[in-house]
């Protein structure tokens, strides 16, 4: 198999798996690299094998799609046309003339380096959650909605007995129903979107019968678990000293301001909160790929504007797992054809292309419906910590803006240290942008994750793992 | 009352013992450090460098670094990523974890 061209696929979620299966089936050798111990990404995250879960599908929907992807990967691994490198945390993809080196750190400790060489790379790096701050959001017991989901799916763990699920976006539904099914009392699902907005977009949303059925299924599950939904509401504060004890939620008016006098306190030990998703674009950005706003720009074949680099899934724009599957399939087929020296015929993936068009329209419609409160910054008191790593308050950011003239996230960072910590601004950038009154733009991070200095010092002596071309 | 383990029909091998700041807690094979601590009712295991405030899991997927913890004298481990092992000595991380 070593005479086949070699494609490195980064990320083993829906997009990366679909790409791997499609490319391996069409004449290239694929190395699939992922940071987790098992394939699946965030969407198909499964309990660790040692937990010996006999019914992992209880935490998922669309399990059959997962089984198809898993079987496809297994088939190609057995045939030698694909291999799956787990526990590989990619921090940098290096471009040489006509080939690439993928640099990874191994295992959960992420201290030992390894390099994989490939003829082309396909970025399926997924996304992470956007969370906007409010007083009390740093209390233990406040977790991201996706974090609550990941801990539940991956480790069968919950952080308490009574939860509030809050924010905005389609992710809140499976998080609330998942926690409820796992025995957590979900005291409320607090969604800031206005139900009227859904009515205004009825046509675009109703064009997706599968999605309507999915929504109806969640509604039935919420009813069965007696979860009350507070639409056009928002969490204005989390209460507690050493951990979360309650939240105050309040109603929003049509303009997105808090309606005075509507605040009510809900006792809870867990708040799962999220305000949408952001794409992981660090690797693409350092490769020099063009970004459109926050998303990696791709053409109809899912090619970036850098030769030899494809991208698929959330990294090219948040749109969900079904869209990621379609994009991954197209990217894999295109990469396989191009690496074998021929121009692909788009008719080969016509069905996936139709799905892609339809789901991108759906994602755009959802995006216009789900929105954080327009005036969310009004709830952020000056003493609220905005940058969780460097403990920079909203007051400090506001001072940098009002008195020192910071008009963008980068200047605010240089003046306040907001975004300079461990997470490199991934958590606070949307908040700082909101407080500074500017658009959120992609941050430039030379490395996609922290790298030990010793690894950089010995860069020229890194082991290149055997068998890579 | 159901639990996540019941829901997924998980039958892990018997629990083993680890310590949190010297106190013995039980952990299951396959759990991360964070999952074992949550199951023991613990939600914070770090205090911040500047304000000394408690922190635990936030993003749950290794992005935010809020859940840093000291395991077997190695500070700065992400509790949401690191699998728990029999006999682990887990300690609350104060600040960077390098001061003591």
TrEMBL record, chain A:
- Outline the extent of the FAD/NAD(P)-binding domain: 6-316
Residues annotated as domain BFD-like [2Fe-2S]-binding: 385-434
Pfam families per the UniProt record, alphabetical: Fer2_BFD, Pyr_redox_2
The residue stretches assigned to a coiled coil in this entry are none
Q: Which UniProt keywords apply?
A: Oxidoreductase
Its name, as the record gives it, is NAD(P)/FAD-dependent oxidoreductase
Naturally occurring in which organism (per UniProt): Streptomyces coacervatus
Automatic annotation (TrEMBL), chain B:
InterPro entries reported for this sequence: 2Fe-2S-bd_N, 2Fe-2S_ferredoxin-like_sf
Highest taxon listed in the record's lineage: Bacteria
Q: Which UniProt keywords apply?
A: Oxidoreductase
What is the recorded name of this protein? (2Fe-2S)-binding protein
* Organism (species): Streptomyces coacervatus
